[in-house]
Specification:
The complex is a heterodimer of chains A (305) and B (748). Chain A is 33% helix and 23% strand. Chain A has 305 residues and is an alpha/beta fold. Chain B contains 31 helices and 19 strands. In chain B, the strands form 6 sheets. In chain B, strands 6-7-8-9-17-16 form a 6-stranded mixed sheet. In chain B, strands 5, 12, 13, 14 and 15 form a 5-stranded mixed sheet that branches. Classes of the chains: A alpha/beta (305), B alpha/beta (748).
Chain lengths: 305, 748
């Protein structure tokens, strides 16, 4: 059987995941469990059903094909029970309204490359290319490595967006095929990292160091959530990265937005952060000013759009 | 009681009657003498150039003043309204009634319709394309003429007179009577132009004497008066003289598209700036003022000014004018002139940069035309030399012709979705219930998709063939009726041949057919193929029934149709069907030159608001569109059906062959933040699109929610401009269904 990856989205004309015009391939499954995650449907390593009741046309086609009783016709109104669902997915195939969808498809490298190549001319003019994001690309290591290799052999610039959780060996293997690493830096002290993401950051920091010392081009990306991980200590640590790793391509501040909140409901989960709003302009400005102050105006640090 | 009402119209009619049997050129010249300067209105105090024209109810024009008002026209409806609403004595009233009666059969459109063959009368029963269902309708107009303003400004009026007189004596020695009449008429027409200049000069003289005029205005007015007198006596020497002559000529000629303005005004501008006659600021002021005059002409779909591009002899000077032109478009926030930038790889990049600034501000102008694609395409499509093709200009909604060499008025519209709909109903229109097209058997008879496709093709071909002959006939009658003197004297070869433009004078007489609903038709065919023939999800009877009852109770099935592949997503299947539809109608239309005497006959995939207007009378379609909703716009996907991102959209729209049609418009809608925050990526995006074969782009820039809010509180959003199709508009001034169509278009 050919190598397959579990993909939950392919987004063309991505402008914020590396340089130029890019196509971002989102891999499903992540070892972390960040409380601010804006792609909650990317966490699980399995395909899953998503249900958006506002699109439902109450045609009951799903009720007819479901053998588990998760779909019910309640007086002409459709109801769906996530806990009963056994992920057979027949319902999603039947749903004409797009209310029920399967999140996560298994795809071969070849068919992904075909999709990526459609925009090659745009990458070439803009310095863009492919970004493999997630979930966590390194968690589907063999597939990611293969996709990088084939992309590179097709003359396509490559980026990986990673949370940094994998073995050094794996990173070592992808370095020759990765033009840029987008490396997440989420919290500074190990305890808070553990509590925000479910994992401590020792291995992550040492991987960052490893990549840097092996000549990888890296953009460090720092998701900031007001009142959660925007402590003085963390901002100081971000600033000091610029000094510690002067050859970084950039340090991007990524202010939290809550557009992913509703996505949790559509996969039958509750959002973890319910009381935090999308970052306001004033806060963004304050963060940048603070970082400038701490870093002595280091030009590596910038706000991501 | 008002005794002055319609006096000029009555006098015009009397003159026409007196010269009814004279040579048509002479008759026209005598009529023009009545028409001008009578139909000019006074300059406004802020004007820096003379020339404002009023709505004329009886007259002669190559262009249109209403659905069938062109050539010799009489706008009956408007006149009847005056009769109803004004206090008019019985004698005048009777005279007006007589005038209406006279023009009923004597107007040019009526003569064309009268000359229709039996076949045309049968299949083109109505001219009311905006208000009735139909597959094809004729249009009555000779629109899009782009005359040789460069020649006019180089020779001036005296030089033109000299040239005509010299041609006249040539033909006189050869004893060519017909041609002599033509030249005599041209000379009379030039005298009409001179009279018009003098009329304004005199009027301004009176204005200056008046007490209400400020000193600074008096200075401007005196200069204007002097210029009006000077241009009757010698060729223009300054920028301001050149603009004045250009403007007043375009009005008497009723030419509404201005061609390569940077070429014919660039040198005048450079010379005056160099010699100090003009400062940059004053030059900008003059251009701004001209822009306002154009805006006040309210042509809606015309007023094209072309700047930039290859094959400009004075590129540097022209570029300078072009930059001021873009700046004027940023200052004068109106829907006209329709500034259009031709560009090519290697052109001064400041032009494109400034153009994108203006577009990013939401001006919708300039529209962008890619010479690297268009020149070779036009060369092939029109069968012309490279050098002729390099002088192409877009006019109106986006049709191409070669400046002062060719003509290509769209004399018909065809609704491809309606052609499919009538084919599915065995020749009957489901909206009116009337027989409208060829009966080729019911839908159930087409047991393969191929058979349905063939029947659709036959239906379209049947109408295209008729439309081509109609165009030829329209030119013939129009040419018998008049010489269109002001246009003819500045169209190549007419002077040499001594003939009016449509009486054998023009070099390349071509025609065009506007196609509508191209994508809606292709997407419908894709859905039918997918759901009925391939997957067999629906039977033919089911599909027809669902469409006939406008999806009522079949929302699930409508969604199945909506989910079928759609053009605009870089999808092979859907884009392939669009290419089939495109290639078929474009090639078949282009082949009609073999059956007519036209130099070219091609489709144009332009759009005014016809996608909405004709959509109102088009039944529910298999692409999921409901009865009465807008069809797709131009070469664009159906609104909102492009879901794979902007690169996928652009990849789709570069697929249709550009070498087999005479113009296609590409509308795109971007957010303001895309232009502001991602300007560099946006530039790369457009650059790549154009490299990949993008011919054209019409770009609307608006904020998310801006249009929704504008529908709720129109009074606050007068500043929001959108590109409808072939024209721009203030969003709040559009009808609700057009607004909804624009709202539904994907915002990138």
């Amino acid at each position: 059987m050919k190598l397959q990856g579990l993909i939950f989205d392919i987004q063309r004309f991505s402008l914020h995941d590396g340089p130029g015009i890019r196509t971002t391939v989102f891999l499903k499954g992540c070892p972390m469990d960040c409380i601010w995650c804006h792609n909650p449907e990317s966490k699980s390593f399995k395909p899953q059903i998503s249900y958006n009741s506002s699109l439902c046309g109450n045609c009951m086609s799903c009720v007819k094909v479901c053998s588990t009783g998760a779909h019910k016709d309640v007086n002409g109104k459709h109801e769906f029970d996530f806990s009963t669902c056994q992920s057979h997915f027949e319902c999603a195939d039947e749903c004409a309204f797009g209310a029920l969808k399967i999140i996560g498809r298994y795809m071969e490298v070849e068919s992904i490359i075909e999709e990526i190549l459609k925009d090659k001319a745009y990458y070439e003019n803009s310095g863009g290319g492919l970004t493999i994001s997630g979930g966590e690309p390194m968690a589907q290591f063999d597939f990611t490595l293969e996709l990088l290799k084939v992309s590179q052999s097709n003359g396509i610039n490559t980026c990986i967006e990673t949370c940094g959780v994998t073995s050094k060996r794996n990173f070592e293997k992808v370095i020759p095929f990765t033009d840029t690493f987008l490396f997440d830096y989420k919290a500074t002290d190990s305890y808070s990292h553990q509590s925000f993401t479910g994992l401590d950051n020792k291995r992550i920091l040492s991987n960052l160091d490893f990549l840097y010392k092996n000549g990888a081009k890296i953009i460090v990306r720092c998701p900031l959530v007001r009142g959660i991980n925007d402590s003085e200590e963390h901002l100081r640590a971000i600033s000091s990265l610029a000094e510690k790793y002067p050859e970084l391509i950039g340090i991007e501040i990524m202010p939290y937005h809550n557009l992913g909140r509703n996505k949790s409901h559509s996969i039958g989960e509750s959002p973890l952060l319910t009381n935090v709003d999308t970052t306001d302009e004033e806060t963004k400005h304050k963060w940048i000013e603070t970082l400038k102050l701490y870093s002595g105006n280091n030009s590596l640090i910038r706000l991501s759009q | 009681m008002n005794g002055n009402i319609l006096q000029t119209e009555l006098k015009f009619t009397e003159t026409y009657k007196r010269y009814r049997n004279a040579h048509p050129a002479i008759r026209e010249a005598m009529c023009l003498k009545v028409q001008y300067p009578a139909f000019f209105t006074p300059v406004k105090p802020s004007d820096l150039f003379a020339g404002r024209i009023k709505n004329t109810l009886v007259g002669i024009t190559p262009d249109e003043w209403g659905l069938t008002s062109f050539g010799y026209y009489c706008r009956e409806e408007e006149i009847c309204k005056i009769l109803r609403t004004s206090e008019i004595g019985p004698i005048l009233s009777q005279k007006i009634e007589e005038m209406l009666e006279f023009w009923k059969e004597e107007n040019t459109s009526a003569k064309i319709r009268k000359a229709y063959t039996k076949e045309m009368k049968m299949w083109l029963p109505s001219d009311n394309w905006m208000g009735e269902p139909g597959i094809a309708f004729p249009l009555y107009r000779l629109t899009g003429g782009n005359i040789d303003f460069d020649k006019l400004l180089t020779l001036g009026i005296p030089g033109m007179i000299e040239e005509i007189e010299s041609k006249r004596s040539e033909k006189l020695s050869e004893g060519k009577v017909d041609e002599i009449h033509f030249y005599d008429a041209l000379l009379i027409a030039l005298n009409v132009l001179i009279d018009t200049c003098r009329h304004y000069a005199e009027e301004i003289r009176v204005m200056i004497k008046g007490n209400n005029t400020e000193e600074s205005q008096k200075r401007e007015l005196s200069e204007m008066r002097d210029i009006l007198e000077v241009i009757t006596l010698s060729r223009p020497k300054t920028f301001r003289e050149a603009v004045q002559l250009f403007w007043i000529y375009s009005l008497v000629a009723d030419v509404r598209n201005y061609g390569r303005m940077d070429v014919y005004l660039g040198d005048f501008l450079a010379k005056d700036l160099e010699s100090g006659v003009l400062t940059e600021i004053k030059a900008q002021m003059l251009i701004d003022n001209l822009w306002q005059l154009m805006a006040d002409r309210h042509t809606v779909v015309h007023n094209r000014v072309i700047i930039g591009g290859k094959a400009r002899v004075n590129e540097k000077n022209a570029d300078h004018f072009a930059l001021l032109a873009i700046e004027a478009t940023r200052h004068i926030k109106e829907i006209e002139p329709q500034l259009s930038l031709r560009f090519y790889k290697g052109m001064d990049p400041t032009l494109m940069a400034k153009a994108l600034d203006a577009i990013g501000e939401g001006r919708t102008f300039p529209m962008l035309y890619n010479d690297d694609v268009n020149i070779p395409s036009i060369q092939k499509a029109f069968d012309l030399s490279y050098s002729d093709a390099s002088q192409y200009v877009p006019y109106g909604c986006g049709e191409y012709i070669v400046e002062h060499k060719s003509f290509g008025t769209p004399s018909g519209v065809i609704n491809l979705l309606k052609a499919l709909e009538v084919t599915l109903h065995n020749g009957v229109d489901p909206v009116s219930g009337k027989k409208m097209g060829l009966s080729q058997g019911s839908f159930t008879h087409f047991n393969t998709f191929e058979k349905l496709w063939q029947a659709y093709c036959c239906q379209v071909e049947h109408f295209v063939g008729i439309m081509a002959k109609q165009e030829e006939l329209e030119y013939k009658i129009a040419g018998q009726e008049a010489s269109y003197l002001f246009m003819s004297m500045l169209y190549d070869e007419c002077l040499d041949r001594g003939k009016g433009i449509f009486s054998g004078g023009i070099k390349y007489l071509g025609g065009t057919l506007e196609t509508y609903g191209n994508t809606s038709c292709a997407d419908s065919l894709t859905a039918i193929k997918d759901l009925v023939y391939d997957k067999k999800t629906l039977t033919q009877e089911q599909l027809l029934k669902i469409l006939d009852i406008n999806f009522e109770g079949y929302e699930k099935e409508r969604h199945l149709m909506l989910n079928a592949p759609k053009y605009g997503n870089d999808d092979e299947c859907a884009d392939g069907m669009l290419l089939n539809v495109h290639n078929h109608v474009a090639n078949y239309t282009r082949d009609q030159v073999n059956k007519t005497g036209l130099h070219s006959y091609m489709i144009v995939i332009i759009n005014n608001s016809a996608n909405t207007l004709m959509g109102r009378y088009t039944a529910a379609s298999a692409d999921g569109r409901r009865y009465g909703e807008s069809m797709n716009n131009g070469n664009s996907p159906s609104s909102g059906m492009d879901r794979k991102g902007i690169t996928a959209l652009l990849n789709s729209i570069v697929k249709p062959d550009t070498k087999i049609h005479a113009g296609a418009v590409q509308n795109m809608k971007f957010s303001r933040s895309m232009f502001k925050s991602n300007r560099k990526e946006l530039e790369y995006l457009l650059e790549t699109y154009f490299e990949k074969g993008g011919a054209q782009a019409m770009i609307t820039v608006v904020d998310r929610n801006e249009l929704e809010n504008a529908m709720k509180e129109p009074e606050k959003y007068g500043h929001v401009f959108v590109r409808v199709g072939g024209f721009s508009a203030r969003f709040v001034e559009l009808s609700e269904d057009i607004q909804r169509d624009i709202l539904r278009r994907t915002l990138y």
